[in-house]
């Protein structure tokens, strides 16, 4: 399936190809504050539309996950990193996807606070 989404103001737009079978709710210091629901995709299935000039980048702790946010509205639609096997991965905030029924997606809870 092909999903489309954006930040609140629309300056960051994206599309991703794949299936969203579940989401992850993490309680680490940043995810808990942002309230993200994440679904993971190989980076080559994600396309950032437009110039990307308004995409900010934030890293913390081990500085291995690049949390992306809009410099205009502040919404965080995705993060970039690598999976345990070293593959480039996108952690997509599914709350930023258009026309998605969040209540139908099972949510798994991850204890990122203690990792």
Topology:
Elements lengths: L1 E5 L6 E5 L5 E4 L2 H6 L3 E5 L3 E4 L5 E4 L7 E5 L7 E5 L5 E6 L13 E4 L5
Parallel strand pairs: 3-10
Antiparallel strand pairs: 1-2, 2-5, 4-9, 6-7, 7-8, 8-9
Account of the 3D structure:
- The structure is a single chain.
- The protein is mainly beta.
- It has a single domain (2-114), classed as Metal Binding Protein, Guanine Nucleotide Exchange Factor, Chain A (Beta Complex), CATH 2.170.150.70.
- It contains 1 helix and 10 strands.
- The longest helix has 6 residues, at 29-34.
- The termini are far apart.
Kindly state the percentage of residues in helix: under 10%
Give the C-alpha Rg.
13 Å
Total number of distinct structural domains: 1
CATH secondary-structure class = Mainly Beta
Distance between the termini: 32 Å
How is the largest sheet built, in terms of strand order? 4-9-8-7-6
């Amino acid at each position: 399936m092909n999903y489309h989404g954006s930040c609140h103001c629309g300056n960051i737009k994206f599309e991703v190809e794949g299936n969203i079978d579940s989401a992850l709710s993490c309680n680490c210091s940043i995810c808990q504050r942002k309230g993200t629901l994440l679904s993971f995709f190989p980076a080559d299935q994600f396309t950032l539309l437009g110039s990307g000039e308004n995409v900010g980048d934030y890293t913390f702790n081990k500085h291995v996950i690049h949390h992306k946010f809009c410099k205009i509205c502040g919404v965080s639609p995705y993060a970039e990193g690598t999976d345990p096997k070293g593959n480039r991965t996108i952690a997509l905030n599914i709350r930023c996807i258009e026309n998605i029924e969040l209540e139908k997606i099972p949510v798994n809870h991850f204890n990122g606070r203690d990792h």
